[in-house]
Structure formats: C-alpha cells, structure tokens
Amino acid sequence: MHHGKAEEARVAGLDGDRARRLTAENEQRFRETLPGLRGLQVRLHRILSSPYPRAYPTACIVARALLNSPPLPCMRSG
C-alpha cells in the first residue's frame, strides 16, 4: 500500500523528500477509503511501515481500522 499524498517538497523544507508529511486533507481522504478496503475483507496480521513522516501515519490509520492496534514500530537502519 502506498502512503497518502504528502505535502509539497517546497513546504517540507531542508530535509527534502524524507521530511514530507501527510497533509491533513489527504489524511482525511485516505480515511474515507477505509470502508472500501474493509469491504474487500482483506486479512492482515501486521503492518510494517517505513519511518518517513508520511508513511507511518498512513500505516497507523490502516492498522487502527483493520487490526484495531497500531503498526509495528519502524526499525532504523544500522
């Protein structure tokens, strides 16, 4: 699954693409797709996410809706 739409790169500032966050508008739009995802009767056991600030919130939305729990914590490289 791909994260919801992130803010524009010029808004993110110094850290570029990695720092781009999920916009509030697109977080809401993503939430609105959840009934359709539930309707597919997808069975998930866990959700993993990259640590990017737009990916983890998206994973949290899906995990809470479909698993009733947060996603597993991100592992950092190294």
Largest sheet: none
Helix and strand succession?
Answer: HHHH
In angstroms, what separates the terminal alpha carbons? 25 Å
Helix count equals 4
What is the C-alpha radius of gyration, as a whole number of Å? Answer: 13 Å
Low-confidence stretches: none
Helical percentage? 25-40%
General description of the model:
The protein has 78 residues and is an all-alpha fold. It has one domain (9-66). 40% of the residues lie in helices and 0% in strands. The chain has four helices and no strands. It has helices spanning 9-12, 24-32, 34-39, 55-66. The relative contact order is 0.20. The mean pLDDT is 77.
Secondary structure: elements and pairs:
Blueprint: H1 9-12, H2 24-32, H3 34-39, H4 55-66
Q: How would you briefly describe this protein structure?
A:
The chain is an all-alpha fold. It has one domain (9-66). The chain is 40% helix and 0% strand.
List keywords for this structure.
mainly alpha, 78 residues, 0% strand
